Structure formats: C-alpha cells, structure tokens
Amino acid sequence: MELLRSNLSRVRIPEPTNRIYKEECCISFDTPKSEGGLFVDMNSFLAFGKDFVHWNYEKTGNPVYLHIKETQKLVSEDRPSKKPTLLAIGVEGGFDNNDPVYEQSYEIVILPDYVTLPFPWVELPEKVRLAVDAIIMSVGVEKKEQVAAWTADTKIISKHAMELKQLDNGVIVPPSGWKCEKCEKTDNLWLNLTDGSILCGRRNWDGSGGNDHAVNHYNVTKYPLAVKLGTITADLEAADVYSYDEDASVVDPLLAQHLQHFGIDFSSLQKTEMTTAERELDQNTNFDWNRIQESGQEVEPLFGPGYTGLVNLGNSCYLAATMQVVFSTRGFCSRYYLDQGLKVAFDTAPADPTVDLNTQLTKLAHGLLSGKYSIPAAKKDDGDASQTTLTAKQEGIPPRMFKSVIAAKHPEFSTMRQQDALEFFLHLIDQVERNNSGNPNFDPARSFKFGIEERLQCSSGKVAYNKRYDYILSLNIPLHKATNKKELEDFQKLKAEKNARGEELSSNEIVRPRVPLMDCLDCFSAPEELHDFYSTALNAKTTAIKTAGLTSFPNYLVLHMRKFVLEAGWVPKKLDVYIDVPDTIDISNMRSKGLQPGEELLPDCAAEDDGLNANEDIVAQLVSMGFQYLHCQKAAISTSNAGVEEAMNWLLNHMNDPDIDEPIGKAQKSAPYIDPSKVDTLISFGFDEEVARKALQASGGDIEKATEWIFNPPSGITNMDTTPSSSGTEVDAALPDGQGRYRLIGLVSHIGTSTHCGHYVAHIYKDGRWVIFNDDKVGVSKNPPIDMGYLYFFERIDG
C-alpha cells in the first residue's frame, strides 16, 4: 500500500473530455479477453497488453495500472430475447447477436515489479478508487466507434406526410393477393399513398428485386410517398415508408389515416416482408453474395502468418480488401514488419501512439503478418464453460485505430459509409508518402510510383511533352474488342424473345462481354484525337494527336478498370463485363521514348505563368474518372486545390467553356488577389515572399492553412514537370524501374451498382495458391474471380 501511496501523483482522475482506452492495446490487438488481459495506464488512460505494458513504463515512468481481465461465463440457453429498438448489432437496444457473455475482474498493478492490489478494496486511497470507478463507468473510445459503426441514421418525418394529397379514385386495396400492376411480380411491392397504385420496387445489382415500376411511376406522377406491402402490421412504426422525393426511408405520422383511405385495416395484416433497413442490415452482416465471394463452395480456412482476417467495422470492406493486398507487397511488408518492430515504432511515437500513422501501420502489419491472431476461434462447449473446442473460423482483428488515423484528414473515410477502394488506396499512398518524406529511401509508397509522359502533336507538326507522376494506371474498357461477339449476339436475341413473352432470363443464360486486358492496355497508349486544341505554334485552335507512355516501370503496377462510366446527363453506369487477365503481362512497348531527333517543340506559353500548379492527387483522381488531363488541371487550379469534390463541380459547370482546351498559361494567367498584410505576416515567420504568396493562393488566403501548406505541400506542387525533356529516364532517375514484365499477385473485386455501395473482396496469390480475403474470412480460393477485378496488382519480374 505504501508503494501505491508514494505514486499517487502519477494517478489521474479522468475528466469527461479524456479519451479512455480499455478495449484494445494501442500497439497490438490484445484485449481484456486475451490471456494476459489489458493494463490501463492510470495517467494517460492508454491500454497495453501484458507483453507491452513494461515498454510504456520504460518510456513514460507511469507505474500505476488498472488490470482488466474478462472471462466467459455460462449463460442459460433459454434467456429471453429483448425486442430491438435500434438498427444496430451487439449494442444496447440493438439486435442480439448471441455473443458470449463475459464477466470482468479488476486489480491495481504497480510496475516495475508487478505488485498487485485487489479492486474493489476499502483500504485503497480515495483518489485511486475514484479514478478506477471513472474508468470502469466510462464508455471507451473503441466502444464509441463500434456503436457508431453499427448504428444507422435515424429516420426523419417526411415533409410530405402532413399534407399528402390522396386521390378520390375509388381504389380499395385487398388484404392479400397483391401483384404489380405493370408485371406479374408478387413480392417487393409498394403501395403509392397518393393514388393507391401497387408497383414493384427497384431492380438490384444482381437482377433480383423488382423491375423499377414504382420509381418509374414517381418519375411520371411525382407522387412522393409509398409504403412497402408486407411490412404493415399493428405496429405501424415498423412499416417501411419511402419518400422518392427525399430519397430516403421516412416516418409518416399519419400512416394509419393514409392507409384507411384505401380501405386497409392495418390491425389485421401480418408482416411478410423485410423492411429496407432490415434488408440493409441483413446485407451488412451476410456477404455471401456471388462468385466474387465464392459462395456455395466449401472454402478451406487458412491460419498462420499472413493469413489473418480483418473484422468489418461497418462498411469497411474497402479498407480490409485494400490493406490485405498492400501488405502482401515487399515494400510495405519490409517497412512496417520485417524492418521495424513494435517497440521501435512505439519508442519513436508521440505521447499518444493511437494517433500516429507509423505506429498504427506497424501495429496493423504485425497483426496481419505475424500469425499471432490467425488462430481458430475458441468456442465454449454447451453446458460446460470450462471446456472449449476450436472452430474452423478465426475472429480476425479490428483495424479501428488504423482507420481512425488514416481517415483523420479525409472527411469521407471518417464516416461509416461505404467508400471507393481506389480512392482509399490513393489516399493511403499519399499519407504514407508524406509520413516518410524525411527518409524517402524507406518510403514503401515509392514501389507503386511511376512517371507518365503525354505527347501532343498538332497539325503544325510540332510537339509538346507533359510529364506527371501517378500510382495507378486507369484503363478504359473497349467493349468493341470483346472476344465473344457471336455469343453476345445470340444472347441479345434470346433476351428480346423472352422480353416479348414476358419471361425473365435465368442467371445461367446471361452472357457478358469478355475483353482481354491487353486490349485495355493498348487503349491507354493508342493515339487519340483532341479537337479544338490551342496550338501555340499556330496561335489558333486545331486538331492534335495525343499518345501516352510510361517513363518508368514501378515495382508494383496497379491497374484500375474503369467499370463505372458516365452516360448522357452525367448518370453513372456500371459496365457488366469480364476482363480476361493473364498470369503475366509485358508492357515494354508502353515505354515512353521522350523527345526524338528531328522533333520540334511547340512554343511554351505556360512558362510565364507563375501561378498555382495543380495538385496531382486531385488531378489523378479526376483523370481516373475519365476526364481529360488538361481539364482536370484547370479544375484543380480554378478551385485552389480545395479538393476532388470542388474540382468535380467546377468541371461539370465548365465543360462547355470555349477556352476549356486552351493551354493553362493562356487561359488562366490572372492570379487571385492576395492580401498583402497576410503576405507580410508569413514573411515575419521567416518565409520567402514568393513561397508566402503561393501558399496563400493555394489555401484561399487562410494563414493557418497556408502555413500547413508550406510545411506539407501537396504532391504535384513542386514535382509537376511540364517542360520538354529528351528522355524520361533523366527525370525519373529516383523512381523504381526495370523491365516491363509483370505477374499478377492480387486483385480487389467489387459487387454493387456503385463504388460507394456493395462489397469488396481481395484475392491474393500466396505460397503457390490463390487465397480469398473476405473481411475476417480467409481461405483457399477454388475459383478466384480473376475476370471480375476492379483493381489488379502486378509485381514486376526482373531478370
């Protein structure tokens, strides 16, 4: 006790604003359920596993810890189920997922000799008792994030509900026997609350669901509210009401009155259909959808180093699939696992390692690659809590702290919504590159980096060369290059015949185009005509020919398949297509040759423009969406590199500008006004005037953001090289390079109508076989969907 009293100055009573970690170690994935439990530092409130707590003592000198241990207890099988009041799983008020019940035990531990004192104990100093009580009663940071991950948005009351117009057309809806008025469907039916029409719902990505008759009816009539038949019971709050105008599930406080208008006695109806929210929840927890996940096949589970799954935190499969492939590359494996131990990362981390990207990447790497957590999950035998058996499933590790850190500077990745795996990969690479800027030789992001050179030749015969850096090669898919055209023609005939007879196609009758990957690569470097190109040699608009090539071949080449295209009216559409991908590819012919003897350069009018350069991260993401490179540059510059969304909005509003194709130097010479007083302020900080002006211009005149811009300039601000060069190798000497032969090592597949919905799965070639990584499910892949990839990862073959 005297030892504890002598260290009371190192004990703090947590305040409401303190972040308390008590669910997971900050440098490993140990939890209170782990063998050694968890040790909470009673000064910093960080948590550590038994193998790591002495590291914290050595670094901070904090000796007093609350030791938390959870052990599973036997629970009666006939315990009553509570009715859920919240669309969530495993949280108070949500659906019971029948997880095991654990009981907690606590004790005070004093380092370095691990002296233990019981808790609760009346003889403990009051300060210690108050501190421990506050820690126990608080909601840990990890639990707050878990609740946020599983909690859906609250429904709003529809703005149309209180004054909804209902037609007196004599429609009376029977209590059963419903079918769509436009087709023969008898499920997924929606009752329009204005005119009483019964129509089928939206068609899903896999062809299931309805035939879009209900939403088409709204587009014609603008009658906004509909209720899903089969979800109406005496509990009207559980009915599924949808507002097409508000594009959301809503609450209709007058639903009983609106139903009575069509003769519906809701008290006699029984629930027969899942609500949209329940179906969404069902999809969020059951991902066995189709071939991408190899559903219906007996997958042999794998355990051990490199075979650790990642727990889905709620729409986090984009992160899980991407990180599994990234950590299968030599650069990331070496940087954060082989060449850097957890102790080195922890010792060099700031006071709070939970917010340090280097520490959390190292933690994730060791969690995935060490094999420590890739073991069969233990299951308590029925009736005997002391006996356990091993299941064929692993629990996986939850990447909560990593997700929190990597998403800190990105508003979208901070949410619990589904995201685009491509955007996440580019954001990850950008953050890793910045994090390693002081030591670029150890930067694993460099293994993905390469140069692209575009050659423009106008009708004068003169040429221009533009160079840029990128981390992905975004490829259009030439559907006219499909190798199964005869089968496609037969399929279209069959489809027309069945549509004429009102019959539906079965899944095994559907034929999709098959396009070779090499044809997609050829499209990238094929000559392209640019109309209305402004030639500085002619001082007029003309037609130019653009070709593109690579100035270096990276260690790892990431190919992005542009399966999502924009139709007329900027309506996104997903291409239903297969890509035939060989095990190895040779892209040596895509090497850029640079300025050739006898070629004459176009006069350069951009050199006199000392204004803002385009942020290449923004430009690269816009280019990957299918926009022209010059247009993307202008959009980034015109929005002061504010972000992708701002640049996209500018593009959509200026696509038809008469000067959209003119060079940047001619069209955008004028720089925005910069407040001289703010320039003087930055100069007083010790910065050069030119740097201060550029920083203020890039940050919209905000001094704080300008200072951040100076210390962390966006990639492309200084690296963008638009000057002609005789050789790409001279510019890209610092980049990895080699021969143009590559082998396929992994792919990220996507299922869904948009990159921001659906599900992502990774397949990786490891130890001579294909392995599927589907969140926490890891197993031998019997039929990898190589032709359905969204992102393909190739490793360069040297020698």
Descriptors:
single chain, 799 residues, Herpes Virus-1, Cathepsin B, Chain A, eight-stranded mixed sheet, 23 helices, 26% helix, 20% strand
Structure description:
The chain is an alpha+beta fold and 799 residues long. It folds into 6 domains: 1-74 and 101-138, Herpes Virus-1, CATH 3.30.40; 155-284, Zinc/RING finger domain, C3HC4 (zinc finger) (Herpes Virus-1); 316-381 and 390-447, Cysteine proteinases (Cathepsin B, Chain A), CATH 3.90.70.10; 469-528 and 540-590, no CATH class; 676-711; 739-796, no CATH class. It is 26% helix and 20% strand. It is built from 23 helices and 29 strands. Strand 1 and strand 2 (47-49) form a beta hairpin. It is globular, with a radius of gyration of 30 Å. It catalyses: Thiol-dependent hydrolysis of ester, thioester, amide, peptide and isopeptide bonds formed by the C-terminal Gly of ubiquitin (a 76-residue protein attached to proteins as an intracellular targeting signal). This is Ubiquitin carboxyl-terminal hydrolase. It comes from Sesamum indicum. Keywords: Hydrolase, Metal-binding, Protease, Repeat, Thiol protease, Ubl conjugation pathway, Zinc, Zinc-finger.
Distance between the termini: 68 Å
Q: CATH first level of the largest domain: which class? A: Alpha Beta
CATH fold topology of the largest domain? Herpes Virus-1
| Overall shape | globular
Protein name: Ubiquitin carboxyl-terminal hydrolase
Family: Belongs to the peptidase C19 family.
GO molecular function: cysteine-type deubiquitinase activity; zinc ion binding
Domain UBP-type: 156-266
